[in-house]
Design brief:
It is a single chain. The protein is mainly alpha-helical. The protein is built from 8 helices and 3 strands. A 3-stranded antiparallel beta sheet has the order 2-1-3, covered by helices on one side. Helix 6 crosses helix 7. Belongs to the bacterial ribosomal protein bL12 family.
């Protein structure tokens, strides 16, 4: 009441500044309210009391009540039926014996191989260059020489096992050390 009488007695100019001060005072009071600080990493964030109450009530339900709750939530939220998982998920399932696993899943057969030259005999370098020139299409002597000197290098990739074996045999005869991946 006193503040209203004070405002009426104040000239208009002072009244405006008084109301501005009141507004600023309110804004400052709102800004001073305690800020919520996020929890540090690795620490569980605090749960609201409402959620905590719901969780504690659900944990006190027996198995039949949980089933009934699940059905009601599915209907109200229009959720599809999820496949039933054993307790603990896949970790609780007994691991099959190694023999059973091998029989159940066929092994993947590798159909594509890569021939890689890792090193070569310096004494047979010329013969190796000539062999590379003959085996690889589009290579002249200079390109074959640079190819041999850039060891380790891939000779051919994505070839069949028979072709990889033939290439390995031919290059091994002229002093190359070959790996097939």
């Amino acid at each position: 009441m006193n503040s209203i009488r004070l405002i009426r007695r104040l000239p208009t100019r002072q009244w405006r500044s008084f109301s501005r001060c009141t507004v600023l005072h309110q804004e400052i009071a709102e800004a001073i309210n305690p800020l919520t600080i996020p929890p540090p990493e690795g620490v569980d964030k605090p749960v609201s009391p409402k959620i905590e109450k719901i969780v504690s009530e659900i944990t006190n339900l027996n198995l039949l009540e949980v089933s009934e709750l699940s059905q009601v939530l599915k209907k109200r939220l229009n959720l599809p039926d999820a496949p039933v998982m054993p307790m603990g998920g896949f970790a609780a399932m007994a691991a099959p014996a190694p023999q059973e696993e091998e029989e159940a899943t066929p092994k993947a057969v590798k159909t594509s191989f890569t021939v890689k030259m890792t090193k070569f005999d310096e004494k047979q370098k010329v013969a190796l260059i000539k062999e590379i020139k003959g085996l690889l299409e589009g290579f002249n002597l200079v390109q074959a020489k640079k190819f041999v000197e850039s060891v380790p290098t891939v000779v051919k990739a994505d070839i069949s096992k028979d072709e990889a074996e033939k290439l390995k045999e031919a290059l091994t005869k002229v002093g190359a050390v070959i790996e097939i991946d």
